[in-house]
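Dear colleagues,

For the upcoming journal club I promised to circulate an example of a predicted protein-ligand complex. I picked one with beta-D-glucopyranose because it came up in last month's discussion. The inputs are reproduced below in full, followed by the predicted structure.
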Amino acid sequence: MRPVINSWLGPIHVALTLFRLPYSVCSKGACPIKSISTGVSCSAANLGAMSTRLHIKARSPVYPGSDTPRFPVPDDKVSWETEWPEYSPVKYTAPPVAANPVWADRDIGSFSPRFNALDGSTDRRSHEGEYRVHDQRPLNPRGRTGVSGRGLLGKWGPNHAADPIVTRWKMDEAGQRLSNSASKLPILQFVSIQRKDCGEWAIPGGMVDPGELVSLTLQREFSEEALNSLEMPDKAELHERITKLFSSPGLQVYKGYVDDPRNTDNAWMETVAVNFHDDSGDSVSALPLEAGDDAGHVSWIDVDSAQPLYASHSHFLETVAKERHAHW
Ligand code: BGC
């Protein structure tokens, strides 16, 4: 697939405010985007190019964590605009979701969610603009997936995540930047976790809690997954260092739908990905990495197109590399 950003909004510089305060974003000539918890997202016109792209991981043959095969959806039948009377998606809601944990919605019928709206503390608005609702169920803005219901996702409609991309330059022992021999461009490294659920390397992102500001989710998820903050004895010092990092100007590289293998016709992932870069190598680089929460391992990994990553994460990193004139 093509780079996420070139056809979309263009890089947006983000000024993240201090812990617990909303952040504001200014893009070149586009509307200001506020926190998804409190504000409105950019107009659908801005995101139009993104919504025409075909999702692929969301049509993987077998639904993750199960033996449930998806109803096969060929490329030309993905769009809801294409009539397809034979379409018969497999109904699947994973047992842990169907068991009604606090983080998940209940079945449609036992409650009436307000779609395309802030529904109590649950944000059911999409970054992609207004989505359709058919038969009381929200429809995936990128089209058919071969599975109906919620699968592994808790919310009907958009499930909001945030992805902190923490980067530094790769250095040799003398402190000189290392470049790739073919591209001759300096190599970036980012903090990556190996996810416990699928074993794939990923950005240490996570779900936005109900009512939580994205600026806080970025910091909290990074702390929990890459620094194991939940188990850290001296939390105060760590908290101060991390707050400083996440208060520095970030580069928002993506905001919108994610081609995630857990997506279904009625529930899907969306994210906001923001890059925090340690240009001098003396702030983030000194953080003691320790895998926690949903992470099996954590490590600085070279930013390189050959590195396979979870969901749409390599597209986010491609944008970071290009923006920072680094090797890809
Ligand atoms: C992950 C994020 C990812 C999002 C969409 C979340 O569960 O933590 O890193 O971007 O899903 O795939």
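Two points we might discuss: The mean pLDDT is 83. The helical segments are 44-51, 95-98, 214-226, 235-247, 313-323.

See you all on Thursday,
B. R.
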